[in-house]
Design brief:
about 160 residues, alpha+beta, Thiol Ester Dehydrase, Chain A, six-stranded antiparallel beta sheet, 6 strands, Thioestr_dom
Length: about 160
């Protein structure tokens, strides 16, 4: 498994995203990787919210941040799975980039700020240009949010 973040394989024209773009100095710059867990391949990313990511409740992240993290990790996971299904290295031509068609998020408990968050993804279906990704976000080994994404590859 490569130690390079999925997002680092994106060409420059796809590297400006607020959530995961390496070329966006004001963004979150999320990095996603392959991860083996209990003999099963998942994707993983980490993020530590800052004080300015607070929501309406002090010391907790706002829901939009959580959705953004799941969104960017989900589309990156879909792209990585599509490359893997085609037995290609990420970033090789033709470029595979996915966008969100649907994202459903269940907020299970408040998500603390200034704590390392773990975002996991599992591509449960990849059919044609469409990928379905199951997502979760945890803090301190407590599940804070889950999500399901349908991502579609750009033509």
């Amino acid at each position: 498994m490569s130690k390079q973040a999925f997002q680092d394989s994106y060409p420059a024209e796809f590297s400006h995203c607020y959530g995961c773009g390496r070329d966006n100095p004001h963004g979150l710059q999320l990095k996603s990787y392959w991860h083996l867990c209990a003999g099963k391949e998942h994707t993983i990313a980490y993020f530590t919210p800052k004080l300015y990511h607070t929501g309406g409740v002090p010391d907790n992240a706002y829901g939009g941040l959580i959705a953004s993290l799941l969104d960017c990790h989900g589309t990156a996971s879909a792209a990585a799975a599509a490359y893997k299904a085609q037995d290609r290295d990420m970033g090789t031509a033709p470029i595979l980039r996915f966008v969100t068609a649907s994202l459903s998020v269940d907020f299970l408990r408040p998500t603390p700020i200034e704590k390392k968050l773990t975002i996991l993804g599992e591509v449960i279906q990849l059919e044609g240009r469409k990928a379905t990704v199951k997502l979760s976000l945890s803090a301190n080994d407590q599940l804070c949010a889950t999500g399901t994404m349908i991502a579609v590859a750009l033509k």
